[in-house]
Each structure stands twice: as structure tokens, then as C-alpha cells.
């Protein structure tokens, strides 16, 4: 299984997962035109998307999910309460995410294999309810994708612990947010229990999820105004050192360009 972040941040989120013959997109928060450019940069043909999984209904995640599903014929997997959202209404095929249940994602035309890509959703606190994090499993390898979380919730660790690759939100530095340009209401929202993980909170969640299998940590959904890559990396590396996991590679996901295609 390979995972490649195509875009990450409040300007739009999208991540490509390729597992055997099956291709999954997590979120489609850019415009269709911008998504096309990212697919091109990733040397991937959009026609080959078989499944799209939606974390939540905010536009920076859901924007083109319906139109892309229509264009590609992909099945859109989402929580039932999002099925009437405007951004998904064009999707020809929808399936309800079953929280806490690993669901195989088959290739639409090939016979099922003994080792399918499995998707499992877990509810996390955020002000678009419901919002989920994903665990992906293929041939014994695990990836976890978790962004847009208002506060650390140790209870999620059961479902998401010890992935080989972890994509985790490190959104903001509280001091930069406090002094920064956002209006007061937005500052409160971002820092609040329905907002986003600060660097320290991201590190705390890392402590809940990281185990001996972790080889790559991708810091995601960084705020362009209220964070720096260095602050996020410092917080992550300090926690990894505390956990005795210094060998883990730390990567920062970009808003404006596609990341490396990483083997999970
Ligand atoms: Zn977001
Ligand atoms: Zn959100």
C-alpha cells in the first residue's frame, strides 16, 4: 500500500491511497481543476479512482467529492448525515461509513482478493458533526489518517493505535494564533474543542497512537498563518524522542504541492 498526500491545509485536503489494484481518495477538498493538476503531478489518472472516503462535510474536505465521484464513477463513502450535503449530491453511488467496522473496498471489476484494502472510520471531536479519522489496512500494513480534531481524545487510540504510517494534524501554535491576524471568533473556534489540534495537542495524540511499527509521520493541516513547519516538527520530534521512536521519519504535508508517494 502506498499513500501520497496531494494537498493539506484549510485551502483544501486530498490524499491518494494505492493498494494493489484498488485506488482510494481520502477527501476531495480542492476544485476539480486543481485536483486534476495534483493527479497529474502524482502521475495518476483520475479515471482510476474506485473509492472516495469523506472525513467530514467542511468544504476544504468535501468540495469536489460529489462531482469527482460523478466524473470517475467512484463510490463515495460517507456518514449518513452528510448524504444530503450539496457538495456530495452529484455522486451516483454512495455507501454509509460504518463507524468502528473494517469495511473491504473491492475493485469494481476484478474478483475479490483474500487481502482487500480495508477502511475503518472512528468518530473524532470537531465542529462539523460527524467527523471521522480513518484506519486503512492492506496485507498487514496500517495507515492512519487523522485531521480536524478539536482536542486529544485518548479513547480513539483503541481503533487507531500503532500504524506503520500516520498522517496527523499539527494545525497551529497557540501563541501565533493568539497574536495572529484571525478575528477573535475564528481564534476561539480554532483553539476550541470543536476546532483543530495545536502542535502540542498533535504531539499528545501522537503519544496515544504511536507504537513500535511507526516508520513515517506526516504532519498535516498546518495553518499557513498560525504555525511554522519548524515549530510543528520540533513538537513532533520531541514527542518521538520521549517515546523512544527517534528513527521515525517526519514529513510536513504541503498545501500547494503533492507530497512523496510513500510505501506504508
Ligand atoms: Zn479542514
Ligand atoms: Zn473541518
- Alpha carbon gyration radius: 17 Å
Structural class of the secondary structure composition? alpha/beta
CATH class (first level) name: Alpha Beta
The unique ligands bound to this protein are:
zinc ion
CATH superfamily grouping: Ribonuclease Z/Hydroxyacylglutathione hydrolase-like
Q: Would you tell me the overall average pLDDT?
A: 97
Count of individual beta strands:
14
| Count of individual domains | 1
User: How would you describe the shape?
Assistant: globular
Query: From the coordinates shown, what is the CATH architecture?
Result: 4-Layer Sandwich
Low-confidence stretches: none
Task: Give the number of helices.
Answer: 8
Strand order of the largest sheet: 6-5-4-3-2-1-14
Sequence of secondary-structure elements: EEEHEHHEEEEEEHEHHHEHEE
User: Approximately how much helix is present in the residues?
Assistant: 10-25%
Please describe the biggest sheet, giving its number of strands, its sense, and whether it closes into a barrel. Answer: 7 strands, mixed
Strand content: 25-35%
CATH topology: Metallo-beta-lactamase, Chain A
Q: Cα distance, first to last residue?
A: 6 Å
Amino acid at each position: 500500500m502506498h499513500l501520497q498526500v496531494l494537498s493539506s491545509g484549510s485551502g483544501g485536503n486530498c490524499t491518494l491511497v494505492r493498494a494493489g489494484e484498488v485506488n482510494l481518495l481520502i477527501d476531495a477538498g480542492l476544485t476539480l481543476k486543481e485536483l486534476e493538476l495534483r493527479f497529474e503531478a502524482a502521475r495518476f489518472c483520475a479515471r482510476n479512482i474506485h473509492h472516495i472516503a469523506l472525513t467530514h462535510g467542511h468544504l476544504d474536505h468535501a468540495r469536489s467529492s460529489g462531482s469527482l465521484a460523478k466524473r470517475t464513477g467512484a463510490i463515495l463513502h460517507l456518514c449518513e448525515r452528510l448524504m444530503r450535503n450539496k457538495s456530495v449530491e452529484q455522486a451516483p453511488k454512495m455507501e454509509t461509513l460504518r463507524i468502528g467496522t473494517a469495511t473491504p473496498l473491492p475493485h469494481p471489476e476484478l474478483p475479490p482478493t483474500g487481502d482487500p484494502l480495508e477502511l475503518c472510520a472512528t468518530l473524532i471531536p470537531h465542529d462539523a458533526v460527524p467527523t471521522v479519522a480513518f484506519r486503512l489496512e492492506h496485507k498487514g500494513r496500517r495507515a492512519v489518517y487523522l485531521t480536524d480534531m478539536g482536542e486529544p481524545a485518548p479513547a480513539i487510540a483503541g481503533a487507531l493505535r500503532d500504524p506503520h504510517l500516520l498522517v496527523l494534524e499539527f494545525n497551529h501554535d497557540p501563541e501565533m494564533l493568539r497574536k495572529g491576524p484571525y478575528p477573535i471568533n475564528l481564534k476561539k473556534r480554532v483553539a476550541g474543542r470543536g476546532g483543530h489540534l495545536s502542535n502540542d495537542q498533535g504531539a499528545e495524540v501522537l503519544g496515544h497512537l504511536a507504537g513500535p511499527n511507526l516508520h513515517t509521520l506526516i504532519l498535516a493541516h498546518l495553518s499557513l498563518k498560525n504555525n511554522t513547519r519548524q515549530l510543528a516538527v520540533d513538537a513532533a520530534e520531541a514527542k518521538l524522542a520521549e517515546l523512544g521512536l527517534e528513527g521515525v521519519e517526519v514529513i510536513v504535508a504541503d498545501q500547494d504541492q503533492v507530497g512523496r508517494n510513500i510505501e506504508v
